[in-house]
Structure formats: C-alpha cells, structure tokens
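sanity check this fold:
=====
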Amino acid sequence: MSKSICKAYKANRNDEMYTPRILVECLKPYFENWCITQQKDPSQIKGWAPFDKTTSEYVLFFKELGCKVIYSHIDYGQDFFEYEPEENYDIIISNPPFSKKLDVFKRCNELGKPWVMLMNAMAINYHEIGEYFADNPIELLIPDKRISFDGNPSSFNSCYVCKNFLPTRLEFVHVEHNNTGKNFVKSRMYE
C-alpha cells in the first residue's frame, strides 16, 4: 500500500480519535496475566504502539507498567503498512485508524506477534470483517459500558480485538464509568 493511500486515512474524521485512559486501564489485568503466561516480568516486555505519539495513553500505559515501548506514527513518516521497528518487540497494542481496520488486522497477523487493537464493536457485523475473522480466529475484550472519547455519550461500544493475548476467546470487563460529564478525562494525546 502506498504512502499516499495510507496518508488518506488522516482525512477521515473517525481515524484520529484518541483513546481515553479508562479504555486503556481496562487492559491492565489482562496484560499482567499475559506477562505471566509469557513467563516475563513487565520490565522484560517491549511493546509497539504503531499509531501513537509520546503522549498516547498506550505509550504511557506501557511505561507506567515498567515495560519498554516503541511508538510510531504516520506523522513521523512511519506508515504501519510499510514500517516495522528494527528492534524486537513482544506485542502490538493501539487504536488503529477506523477506516483501515481490516487492513490493520491483516497486517498484525502478517507480523506474527500477539496484538490488541481497539475498534468499534459494531464493525463485527461488517461482512468483510466477519468473513476475515471466521478464517482468522480472534479474541474479544468487551467493556461493559459505551466509553466516550469526547465527553459526550457515545453512540457505540468499543471492544479490543486480540490475537494470542486473552485467556479465553471472549472476555467482558467492568469499567467504572463511561467517561462522560463530571467523569470525563480526555486523552493526553490532545495536549
């Protein structure tokens, strides 16, 4: 895929929605469990956040857990479809551009590492997504609330699509609130 095609996704307003902290925090117990299954302390894990900058909640999540982290972004000339870090990494975690989700899942599978990608849960109903997942099994981590990205009630539920990360194929996770009103905390990527 050419850079000009990939760069086009930035024009889609749904492609640059930064993940709020509460959606990243719900990964913590699963990430800790995954580290145990890998027989590694978090300080021995190196994560790649391929759609992220230094203030991304995923980058900060890795750092706060004591992991090493590599982050990349198309704004840095690092197109996920053409770029892979030279350094070895253990897992890929991020919020990919919504309009490229199927291409992202395919690329993650090609890379052959465990991965965790956030998406709109309604996308499971899309014919091409369902067909791909039928042939390429995944795991789902579904928060019990529709989490807001902008402080307003969300019209959709988000979920994490995973490969070789969760203990079972389907997990539901409780989140404290939906990140609206007085509970709203915007992603630090907006700062």
The CA atoms of residues 124 and 131 lie 9 Å apart. The first strand starts at residue 46 and ends at 49. Confidence is low (pLDDT under 50) at residues 1-11. The radius of gyration is 16 Å.
